[in-house]
Amino acid sequence: MDVDFAKLLPLSEATYYVLAALDEPLHGYALMQKVESMSEGNVVIGPGTLYGAFGTLEKQGLIEKVSEEERRKTYALTNKGRRVLAEQVRRLAIMVRNGQFALTTQVKGEAA
Amino acid sequence: MKNAKVTRFKLFWAHQDEEQEAWLRAMARQGLHLVDVNPFCFWTFRRGAPADMVYRLDFSNQQNAEFMQLMQDAGWKLAATSCGWHYWCIPLAGSRAPEIFTDGSSKARKFQRVVALLVCSALPAFMMMILTKKGDLAANLSLPSLIILGTIYLTYFAFLAYAVLRLLLRIRQVRAPHRA
């Protein structure tokens, strides 16, 4: 199965965290809380936005519904979702490396 | 308790969601908590203890049970519903006022649904205006009734055009990434 990364990447910060939080199956509210704590409060996803994101990501085949009880659907990452997340992480790692390099050379430049 | 309920009349345009939210919050601080809104813009409040309640508006044609559950799980209460508008509230805890929508595209989608509904609802009147033979109308109606009919149509379309234009501007505004 080939994944069209060009169409799916880059992920928005919120989408990135939704996928990253789904290393375990979660329902909506648990996911909202997990994203806020794992992003150290930097990313807060509102219920309306999350609900829309679930619909979009399910349509794109990146997540899937694994169970449903009392009007709460539990979602998990699909194989495709995992591959998209992995590709995004690979690109982000390059970005971080470049940013850190730029900052250290700037500091050296100022010191000289 | 006397006068447990208070009714106010106040008009808002569809793009003024933040104005409505601020007004409802100010009312709640005075102890007036929203319980009902009717289509003619009469707002009913229940008198109670003053509280810092944050209000947020959503617009949708149908109420989705799963979404309602998610909102309730997150601590939101549906205070009132009117013409597709849902007035959600949540007590303020901490310094950050909670939001239902936290990115530009989901904020915009709410207003896009309102625009779609307004445009669809105007289609019958618009078609009627185009399909009517203007010559027949002039022959069958007296001048005063023609003027009245024309004024009604013009006023209706002017209001509609203004509402849609302001909504489109609002969509552009919420899509811009700067607002925290």
Key terms:
heterodimer; A: alpha+beta; Arc Repressor Mutant, subunit A; 5 helices; 13% strand; globular; B: 180 residues; alpha+beta; 3-stranded antiparallel sheet; 50% helix
Explain the overall architecture.
The complex is a heterodimer of chains A (112) and B (180). Chain A is of the alpha+beta class. In chain A, 62% of the residues lie in helices and 13% in strands. Chain A has helices spanning 5-8, 13-21, 28-38, 47-59, 79-111; strands spanning 26-27, 63-69, 72-77. The longest helix of chain A has 33 residues, at 79-111. The model of chain A has no long low-confidence stretch (mean pLDDT 92). Chain B is an alpha+beta fold. Chain B has two domains: 5-91, no CATH class; 104-175. Chain B is 50% helix and 21% strand. Chain B has five helices and six strands. In chain B, the strands form two sheets. In chain B, strands 1-3-2 form a three-stranded antiparallel β-sheet. In chain B, helix 3 (104-131) runs antiparallel to helix 5. The longest helix of chain B has 33 residues, at 143-175. The chains are: A alpha+beta (112), B alpha+beta (180). At the A-B interface, helix 3 and helix 4 of A face helix 2 and helix 3 of B.
Name the assembly state: heterodimer
Strand fraction band of chain B? 15-25%
- What is the CATH domain class of chain A? Mainly Alpha
Coarse shape of chain A:
globular
Distance between the termini of chain B: 42 Å
Helical content band of chain A: 55-70%
- The overall pLDDT of chain A, averaged over residues, is 92
Major β-sheet annotation of chain B: 3 strands, antiparallel
What are the low-pLDDT stretches of chain B, counting only 5+ consecutive residues below 50?
Answer: none
Radius of gyration of chain B: 20 Å
Count the beta strands of chain B: 6
In whole angstroms, how far apart are the ends of chain A? 52 Å
Quick one: overall form of chain B? elongated
CATH homologous superfamily of chain A, by name? Answer: Winged helix-like DNA-binding domain superfamily/Winged helix DNA-binding domain
Q: Mind summarizing the main beta sheet of chain A? A: 3 strands, antiparallel
Nearest-angstrom radius of gyration of chain A?
17 Å
Mean pLDDT of chain B: 90
Strand content of chain A: 5-15%
CATH architecture of chain A: Orthogonal Bundle
Number of domains of chain A: 1
User: Residue ranges of chain A: pLDDT <50 for 5 or more in a row?
Assistant: none
